[in-house]
Amino acid sequence: MRLDKLLAHTGYGTRKEVKQIITNGWVDINGQTVKKVGFQVDIENDVVTVDGQVVQYQKYHYYIMNKPEGIISATEDHYHETVIDWLGPDYAHLDLFPVGRLDIDTTGLLLLTNNGQLAHQLLSPKREVPKRYFAVVNGIVEEKDIDKFAKGLDLGDFVTQPSQLTILNVDEAKNQSRIEVVIHEGKFHQVKRMCEKINCEVIQLQRLSMGPLILPDDLPIGEFRPLNEDEWTLLEDFGIE
Q1: How far is CA 190 from CA 159, 194, 199, in A?
Q2: Lower CB density within 10 Å: C or N end of the chain?
C-alpha cells in the first residue's frame, strides 16, 4: 500500500496533510526515515512509525450501533443527518457504511463496517438471515394474524417470505398491541407494510437482532462501539467470514 494512503486510512489526516507529514521527515519505516509519499509499504511486515508512534493498520472495521430516531441509514444525504455523520469526523477515514437500512424513525441494532463481502453475506436473500423487530402498533393483533405472517403476506409488489409473529401484549382500552416480528428479508418499509396488511399502524419500531448479532442491553440509544470478541465469534459460527 502507498505510504500516504496507509497514513490517511489510519487517521493521520487527509492525503494533503499526510503528504506534509511524510515530506517533513516524520515517518520511519523499519527504522529508516522515508520522505517519498508513494513509497510502497508491506503492511504485513513493515514497521511504520510517525514521530516515534507505531502505525496500527487494520483492514476491516466493525461497529454496532443502537440507532436513534431522526437519522438515516446512509453514508451521505443532502437533507438529513446520516449514521455516518452521527459517528463524527474521527471515524471518517474508516470508510464505514451501514449494513442494510433502518427507517429514519426506526431505532435499534445497526452494523457499520467497511467490509463489503460481509455486508453482502448478511444481506443476501439466499442466506435468509433473520431480523427480529419489536413493534408497538395501533390496532389489535389477533391469533389468526400469526398464521397470515407464517404463510406470507401479499403486499402487492411482492409476497413476503414466511415470518414469525409473536403477540406480547394487547391493550384493548388503548387499541394497541405490542409484538415481535422475525423476517428473513428486508424490503422497503416491510414490517410497517406487513402490519398495515392486518389493519395495524406501526407507531414504534426497534430492531432487536440481525442474524446472530443481538442489540446489547447495555448499549444506550445513540451509542456505538466496536464488535467484541464474543460477537465476532457468533458471526463466524453463523458462517459469516
Answers
A1: 11, 6, 14
A2: C
